[in-house]
Fold each of these.
Amino acid sequence: MNPESLPAQVRRAWAVAKKDIRIYYFKGPVLIFGVFMPVFLFLAFYMGGRDLPLSFLIPGLIGMTLFFSATAVSPAIFPWEGSAKTLERLASCPISIEAIVLGDMVASALFGIGITLVTVLIGVGAGLPVLHVGILLVALLLGACCFSAIGTLLAVPPTNVPSNIMMLSSLLKFPLVFISGIFVPLAQMPPWGVSLAAFSPLTYFCDLTRYCFSGANFFPVIVDIGLLALFSVIFSAATMYLHRRTMPRRL
Amino acid sequence: MTEVISAQDLVKTFGRNRAVDGVSFTVSEGEIFGFLGPNGAGKTTTTRMLTGVIPPDAGTATVLGHDIRKKPVLAKQGFGVVPETSNAYTDLSAWQNMMLMGELYGLPRALAEERSSDLLETVGLIEKKDQKVQTFSKGMKQRLILAMALVHDPRVLFLDEPTGGLDVQSTQMILSLLRNKNREGITIFLTTHNMEEANRLCHRVAIIRRGKIVAIDAPEKLKMAIDRVHRIEVSFDREVPGEDLGKVSGVTAVNRTGDKYQLDVLARDAAIRSLVSFAVSHNLQIVTLNTLAPTLDDAFLRLTQESGP
């Protein structure tokens, strides 16, 4: 098989993803930012005394879980590998930078999907049925791809200090959570709030999950899916292009 | 002989420092090519450009006929790299690292397993194949890196200081493996500080200084080229005045070192004949008679100290 061909590069990307899964899933910062952070944020919100129905809370928790978990692994990999010199190992192997980035994104997306499915099961266990299973799975897949691409994009600055990237990542992630209709329903937001929310892919994911659990949605489902897919493509293309430019400065 | 590595006017600048300044050379198939130079001369930067880790600012590099910038994947498929710093994944076991390399080079699983077993056996790590690399010593890590670089049976192997700071056992194991692989046809590009290693291993060496190549030749030719005055060491069974030796035909200088004399001579053969005649005529017995060729160390020091601006 020609090593430059797409199937060959996809197989090598999968090798990178498997390596990431073995190494990074249980790293402290990944668990803190990917698992504990959304749980504690949700608990703080839940215990705040607001009388909101489960059909609003659970989709919000699912949105936060996927967003935090899918963006927890990918920003850390490049700086970690840069400082451990293992990125140089990958750079001297017959794998394109795009395939390395794809591998990191796949590992990150799978982490997000795995953790989020637990949250979905908690919701179902709490007595909230899933009304549209197929759409929920599509939403999870697209959301995981989109958020993992955002995570990889956050790792573009060529620093090899993981904590720098984690700080930058928190700086961008928290505002997105607050403008995306997780804590305040889009229907209750002022027009400027809705306009702002429209720029966040998390908005469309949360709208889709609410539709899947309660049948209520703010944007049409097709718009939610279409925009999530568009965001995924744009962020993936951007992260691959930018990593190609900055990776030599990491090495 | 087929050219397998070619560098043409490679340039790399970091800030205001021109680390590599127009480096050009070729390496033929089956050669062991040594790349020598003092610290900061541009050896590692050149190697990293040749292996596609960093892009050159100017110039071209081809490996196995593929331009490393235009066809990086095809070029990298044909070579293995042993970098200066061990860069195996320390959170993975030796076996997992080997399998990862197999997958990154597109090897079928069964073939990767077979080669990994053989290579780990060769480098003496088969017993520890399931241990995480973070528990390995420096020598074990370096042997693992070499095994990882060979798993896809490359035609070219780049090594950057492969034995730096290693114990004698690991060093001998690595050098022996390199010799065997070269006999099997692998071309080796070796960056090293170790003159003895380069002298014993390399068919040709290039010496780089301040980013420029100052000499490329076989080690023996380089040694001879640096000094036209040859040296002979001699001692006799009894004391001989140095002034008498100075009068022997062809001897240009006499230095006493312990119970021996080191003589600078114009031509070794003529000087040895004259010394034998001198011993016979003075009824002396020659105890030792050695010709002292310049070492690669001498050549390296001379070339790196004198040829710069």
Note: Chain A has a mean pLDDT of 89.
Amino acid sequence: MSTITTARTVFDIKDLNLWYGNHHALKKIHFPINKKEVTAIIGPSGCGKSTFIKTLNLMINYVPNVKMTGEINYNGQNILNEKLDLVELRKNVGMVFQKGNPFPQSIYDNVAYGPRIHGTKRKTHLDEIVTKSLMDVALWDEVKDRLHTPALGLSGGQQQRLCIARALATKPDVLLMDEPTSALDPISTLKIEELILNLKEKYTIVIVTHNMQQASRVSDKTAFFLMGELIELDDTSTIFSNPADERTEGYISGRFG
Amino acid sequence: MEKIMPAKDRLLKSGKNGLGNEMRGKVLVILCAVIMISVTISITIFLGTKGLQSFIKNGVSPIEFITSTKWNPTNKANPEYGAFPFIFGSFAVTFLSALVAAPLGIGAAIFMTEIAPSWGKKILQPVIELLVGIPSVVYGFIGLSVLVPFIRENIGGLGFSLLAGTIVLSIMILPTITSIATDAMSSLPKSLREGSYALGATRWQTIRKVLIPAGLPTLLTAVILGMARAFGEALAVQMVIGNVRDLPSSFLDASATLTTIITLNMGHTTYGSVENNTLWSMGLILLIMSFVFIILIRYFSSRRKMQ
């Protein structure tokens, strides 16, 4: 397993254990995540992949009875132990959820939400951020004439791209995506995948997916989780052509999961 | 040997019995609906004709009735029928009590759903149910024996006042507003909170900038239902407001509302007399206002669906 930490590492997870009450959901995870790479996390339902991605921006804190040990180093700072500025962490580590969850506000206000809560007030500056974020997700041309109409009037795929734009508006360097296309049709899925490939020039992306083809299409590194353990983490091409562990091979060849 | 029927006949035959039952059920529920609708329509028509009689038959000027501040129907030589002080009183206690109860109720709802969902709900829920269950005469009685003397001794005036009416009504409509506002907040999807927290928002920012705007149509419905209750409440208000015919010039002045004047005077006026008819006119105003409240609630719930 190639888990060597380098200067290109954004997240360096060491010996992470997580319990939901008595249930040991993540077991001794060692996981470096590299800058400007797409890391895909695959595995069967209940393997801990969603739990894992939620630890990276500590959204896991909202689940009751969670206990964690180990280290999650983000740019050299352990977000578990030190007195952490949660606001700053989440500004830098954005997240996109399974289903697009725009606020029941206008398209503009959705994208401007993050910058506004972080103190950006000037209209010109906000306009600039909104325009740029919407362009980054290739939504600008579709919505530029109706920025002030309700975001919930958009299609499912557009809503999901809007949520990505909303996450990008706080200028993060990591983008976490928790099964971002599981509720979308194939064409919208394709658009999101193209978007991921474009975004990786500027952002580090971690994506949880049920869809192995998706992992092979978009990611540089793939991690295979099984029953709370990280079984294998390697270059995507290696994982899909020549996995080291037979359980990985069993999963990707469709023998279980 | 049993005769085997073609499938088509079997289907038709089996339909017969079921159809009879269907019909009976349908007639029964239609009957219920018809009774309800006809009762509502009858009351509206009755109140409409009775309420308009003072203007049509007795020649009371509707403009005077709504705008004049002089109420003196018993003066034989020169009776005056200006109901403005009561209309004003009704609106004043309604809006003032909503102004007090809306922030309290919505605040309590947010506390229960966002801040302390577990124990907050455990304590506040029964408190609210209890408040709903207390009869209005008890509220009035408490207001009369505690609130009125308190205002007289500590704030000033007679004690019987617009202020006393407002306070009693605020407490009475608080549970209505709180329970509907709680439903409004707890029905908001979890994904909204997640989305906001994931962008680095604090809990207060999430409540103020995402949850309250998202729940606003229902929160407004809660306030309007509270106002509708305040507007129609008679007994408790009558016991503390003082019931004078003059326009109040301050919070501490005694006042009257449409409902209190109706309850006070309906017993000693003769059916069909001018004064009695003007009371019906006040009833008509109450009915019209409740229609207005319903229209407002409809408007807000259609906005909620649009979102």
Note: The domain at 91-270 of chain B is CATH 1.10.3720.10 (MetI-like fold).
